[in-house]
Structures are given as C-alpha cells and as structure tokens.
Amino acid sequence: MYFYTIINLVQFNIKILKQFPLFLVVVLFFNSCQYFEKQVPSEKELLQKELKSINWKEVDEFPSVADCEKIADKKLRQHCFFEKMAQLIQEKLDVDSLSVLYPELDTIEVKVTVFPNATMKFEPQFPKDSVAYDTTKIDSVLQARLVDFPKVNPAIKRGVPVKTQFILPVIIKEKSTK
Q1: Taking 80 as the threshold, does the pLDDT of residue 16 lie above it?
Q2: Distance of alpha carbon 1 from its chain centroid, rounded?
Q3: Rounded distance, CA 149 to CA 112, Å?
Q4: Are 59 and 155 in contact (CB under 8 A)?
Q5: What number is the average pLDDT over the span 21-37?
Q6: Which residues contact 138 (CB under 8 A, 6 or more apart)?
Q7: Rounded to an integer, what distance in angstroms lies between the CA atom of residue 64 and that of residue 81?
Q8: Which DSSP string do the residues of 74-111 spell out, in sequence order?
Q9: pLDDT of 32-88, one tens digit each?
Q10: Does residue 132 register a pLDDT over 90?
Q11: Which of the residues 11, 35, 122, 149 has the least number of beta carbons within 10 Å of its own beta carbon?
Q12: Average model confidence (pLDDT) for the chain?
C-alpha cells in the first residue's frame, strides 16, 4: 500500500507540474494589472510642463554675422556681434548730416530687431519727453542709411530661428578731447 501511495503522489505531482505553466501565466497576468492602472500624462500636460521649463527670455544662440561665426564662446560671439553692428551703424551714419543737424546729439540708441528670416528693422529710441529732436526726421535718416547690411544669421531657440530685439547705443560723433 505504501508503494501505491507513492505512485499516486508522483502522478499527482506530475499533473500539477503539467498545469504549473498555466498557473504561472494566470498569476503573472493578475499581478501585471497594477501596471496598467498607472495614468499616462496627456499631451497637454506634457506640453505645459515643457513650456514651463523653457526660459523664453534667453536664446540658445544669439544672432551673428560671418565675422563672428568662428568664435566658439557664446558670450564672446555675442559681444562680437554687438560690436560689429554698432560699428556698421556708425559707419553708415558717419556720412550723414545727423551730426550737423543736431550738434548736441552725440549718441543715439537704436532698437534693432532681427527677424527669423534674417531681415532687420531699426528704430531710434528717444526719451519720452524728448522735444529737442525731430524724431520723424531722425527716423527717416536712419531708415535711408541703414540698408545693405551683411547677412545676419537670426538667433536660435531650440533649433528654430527666432525674432530678437536689442538696443544698441550708437555714437554719432566722438566727443572732442580738447
């Protein structure tokens, strides 16, 4: 009888072992359901999170001209660009009568806008209470003179060209050192 019991036990264990893969699959299936319960964030939530993480006040790369492209350092390239732009504007205004029309005007601030398509716009900036200058005349002189600039590469933000604006102080005439 003892032998018969051992044989039955072995046969029972074999039946269980044959069903073990099915049992294992069922157990894994029910345990894996907890992974499906986790909520996936919606596209809007992900977009809002990404938009909040972007610093919209700064660009990845500043606008640049060909002479400054070879400079690797970001700050030095930016400084080079501003120096070149101020120099080019000064050269274009040197041949004009702005210093004759307004002898007291030695420096003018020019708002430069560089658009994503590499075009530029120049706007003189005057104090709000400025009545000493004919602002429309100065603006028309600037618009007439500030043309034919070398190609300017627009600023880059996350791989996309973007519009940037900055104000450059432009020296109309050097102060005499007498």
Answers
A1: no
A2: 86
A3: 12
A4: yes
A5: 64
A6: 98, 102, 108, 124, 126
A7: 6
A8: HHHHHHHHHHHHHHHHHHHHHTSSHHHH-TT--EEEEE
A9: 655 556 677 788 888 888 878 877 778 888 888 888 888 888 889 999 999 998 888
A10: no
A11: 35
A12: 76
Structure tokens at 8: 């039955």
Strands (E), 27-89: 64-65
Tell whether the torsion through CA atoms of 121, 122, 126 and 131 is positive or negative.
negative
CA distance 22 to 26: 6
13-27 residues labelled b (16+ CB within 10 A) or e (exposed): eeeeeeeeeeeeeee
Q: Which two three-digit tokens encode residue 114?
A: 């560089």
Structure tokens at 94: 């040197």
Six-digit token pair at 141? 């002189």
Cα–Cα distance list, 82 to 47, 110, 123, 129 (Å): 34, 12, 16, 28
